């Protein structure tokens, strides 16, 4: 699966985009620069998938329609495809930078060597996009049959059912299902691939700055993976990453305006497709950046002044009747026609160009225009929301310059890192100012105008939105700011004092590159990878119990919405809990407590899925265990089981529990019995009193192992035998667990949905003697593996006798015979109607 998702899938996605891009190129008159073929093809596939999923009956055919378009493009443009391949051979830099951008974006997963994604525990929006992509491809935009009494239906309806942008999701779902891949493992490669696609248009923009060779290559790399963009690709912000590729492609088409503005009207199709794809992926908020591109074209149409040919540009396609050539590097520009004739041609053809562009835009983004009022409402809600998402404070404007020497884009660097960040940012800002002047000096007016309008749009939008929207704005603007800084590098290279200019340009280029790559490396270091084995177990549950829901899911993990999509799950601690169970948890992300649920509210749930955790309370007596894995248990409601009238959680000493059992017995009605779940034998290790490194800090749920070191704790077992050792916490970096000097396990990559719900590692069976023992938990120093600076919280360690009955002994007694239940430790006690009793 790792090879299929990380290596084969991106190749298939790019092949689809190439084929679709060739089809668009052929339809629009065969003028597209080589470096834009893939990005324009992605835009075409977004438009196609949006239309096919709009019509529900056609939605399941989406993957095959995408394949048909790609094959048609390859057949029609086979000669062009061969020349593209030859161009890549002659000028490998654009392809090399795309590959490198992909590797960097997927670095945590690639280094981990297993299918996963790096957005885990950062932002759960990825779960919504996985679920949405699956639903849209299978059912289209038809939400009427969803059950709004459960989380699954509520999430889909309250996101995609109100015209939430889905362009990236339909492209993702259609392409991944074409290969039959699980979306959860293809999601991160998709985001990395969409970011890599942005390298093509970025290359063309760099070439128009008169950068070539490795100069242009470094400009492309740093523009595609600046620190803020890299942060967003690590947590798989699919809307912004997809929109970013479209945004840079719009800019590339603006600077290549002479290829199509004076040509046949069909040449407006690529520009309109890219604009439509941006709107479909990001929503109407993309309009601000689309407006910047359109205004730049308006200025070009009004002016008609020529621009210079980028230095060193090569060509591979001659144009009949003109000297325009297609660059193998995707960047050459033809000598401009005479100004007078150019204006006459444009005046005659502008209305037709606009008409073709408008029609293409209307059709390619039809679902958005069809529900324009709802789409506008979504954009307004996102722009004005007071919910900052995972941001505790607003991002800093200087982050747009591509450098942020901290493992988290949300936190300010400290000490030397803060000084270095400000120095590198100041260098980038000075280079950007110099670059703007340079572009005007070399008369690259279209490029300069587009960059200026982009920055202006960013400034206006940032002042008009709240924290969450401002962060997205900075992300989309960062590549533009970095490219402008590289124009400053080009300016230094053009200085009359050649040796001095090249030396200064080299120093600036290396500084910009080092700042971006070091920033990215720090974020790679702290990335948390999703737990592969646990999600594979959830997927097996979905297959085994498909259609037997609705299902109550008591763990906090919103990715279960995708993995258990056939079970119609309800999560009481999710953003959208089942209304009848909203009080089952104290709030979003908190543990589920059965005592907070009215027993009758569970009647509609035939299944309950819980984490395998002996310390947790088992479900009510009406449920029996029907399946158990390493991580999860599935409980089924007994046929004909009646709802308990009361369910009370018990804790503490047996004597204290006995008084509570008596109080409940006094509330019994005729025909009701007491049923109590006996607690298993737990030997808890007292971690708060353990020996530990001085720099480890005590958190709400355990020790934060923020530095290398070891924890040592004594514990006593009541008897010899095989014991299961249970470790709980959020543990991304690998730790070693030893008992009496013998290593029993190395644990890493074990995370749960958030820090409020402890993750339970599968049991570690050990044969131990009775009496005293010593536990040692060791965290080693950092290495190059992903997540070594990620979550490292040790919450609890306890032992239970091996093969402890997970159902726990259920003891029953008549209400009048309640004293027979005393003297033992229970998890809970219920008042349950007897068979045949009236309630």
Brief overview:
By secondary structure, this protein is α+β, with helices and mostly antiparallel strands.
Shape: globular
Number of strands: 21
Proportion of β residues? 5-15%
Terminal CA distance? 53 Å
| Number of domain units | 3
| Overall pLDDT | 89
Helix content: 40-55%
Determine the structural class based on helices, strands and strand pairing. alpha+beta
Give unreliable regions as ranges: 311-342
Major sheet, described briefly? 6 strands, antiparallel
Number of H/I helices: 26
Radius of gyration: 30 Å
Commentary on this structure:
The chain has 839 residues and is α+β, with helices and mostly antiparallel strands. The chain has 3 domains: 360 residues, no CATH class; 113 residues, no CATH class; 119 residues, Jelly Rolls. 47% of the residues lie in helices and 14% in strands. The chain contains 26 helices and 21 strands. The strands form 5 sheets. Strands 10, 11, 12, 14, 17 and 19 form a 6-stranded antiparallel beta sheet that branches. Strands 4-3-5-7-6 form a 5-stranded mixed beta sheet, with helices on one face. Strand 6 and strand 7 form a beta hairpin. Helix 1 packs across helix 3 and helix 15 packs across helix 17. The two termini are 53 Å apart. The relative contact order is 0.09.
